[in-house]
Amino acid sequence: MSVAEIHQGASPVILAFPHTGTEVPPDIAARLNEDGQVLRDTDWHIHRLYDGLLSDATTVRATFHRYCVDANRDPSGDSLYPGQNTTGLIPSTDFDGLPIWRTGEEPTQADIAERLERFHAPYHAALAAEIERVKALHGVAVLYDCHSIRSRIPFLFDGTLPDFNIGTDGGSTCAPAIERAALEVVQAAQDYSSVLNGRFRGGWTTRHYARPETGVHAIQMELSQSSHLTTETPPFAYDEAKAELLRAHLRTLLRRIETVALSLGRTSR
After folding, report:
1. By 3-state DSSP, what share of the chain in percent is helix, strand and coil, each rounded to 5?
2. Among 42, 47, 44, residue whose Cα is nearest residue 57
3. Nearest to 181 by CA among 90, 60, 264
4. How many of the other CB atoms lie within 10 Å of CB of 119?
5. How far is residue 132's CA from residue 140's CA, in Å, rounded to a whole number?
6. CB distance 22 to 65 below 8 Å
7. Quick count: other Cβ atoms within 10 Å of Cβ 244?
8. Is the pTM of this model over 0.90?
């Protein structure tokens, strides 16, 4: 099993997909309980949603499911959001707080170490290599981390999540022009709601790779799944009509970010 699917492009923009994978090796799948086997917390169809929107973008997609190990968590196990409900490096529950492992089959510290080596490390090695390659081409690279989540999850947040959730960790992970470009596009998207650095401020991937002072910028986009799925319950079907409306805005957003990135690259040379 290859842990990452990689497409190399010449754009300064890199699209990362840490949570769209649904592959669970048999040795891990056998330990999941009935609820866990639903794989409810997948970022359903996000790689399909972004497909072709920026033709020359590099893409790095994890093929393994986040229940194997979460590619968007700090390998040290430190929480991204101290004091708030969240899920860990290897989740013990789903986003509703329900156990996902069979009794007595919960992952151990030895499992964590093995899965970091087996899944997490090679995925991030691939992503890091693409960031370096793209930066060498342009003097700048923008990592755009692609995510989605159900719009209502009381265990994680109150109320209904906005459609577009931009995360830059308070503006620290990218140049102000990149954050501003993203915000302007989503705010102009009629009939969609948006927020900057709300419940989701950017995950470990965004925070870990961001070095704006060296030309590596990062931004996370968490989309509400109600914006592109027929329902947020099984079978989590892709809604073509909803998705096409959303894709138009995402295409504009990515092109705007690419334009800003190319400008930053010229300035840095």
Report:
1. 35, 20, 45
2. 47
3. 264
4. 26
5. 9
6. yes
7. 11
8. yes
Could you read off the pLDDT of 163-217 as tens digits, one per residue?
999 999 999 999 999 999 999 999 999 999 999 999 999 999 999 999 999 999 9
**Identity of residue 143:** L
Q: Residue 222: in which H helix or E strand, if any?
A: strand 216-224
CA distance 216 to 231: 36
Closest alpha carbon to 251 in 240, 239, 243, 261: 243
Any idea which architecture 4-268 has in CATH? 3-Layer(aba) Sandwich (3.40)
Contact criterion met (CB below 8 Å) for 243 and 163: no
What's the token pair of residue 113? 């170490």
**24-72 pLDDT tens trace:** 999 999 999 999 999 999 999 999 999 999 989 999 999 999 999 999 9
* DSSP-based three-state secondary structure for 17: strand
Quote the CA–CA distance of 256 and 219 in Å, as a whole number: 13
Residue count of the chain:
269
Tokens of 157: 């947040």
DSSP type of residue 104: T
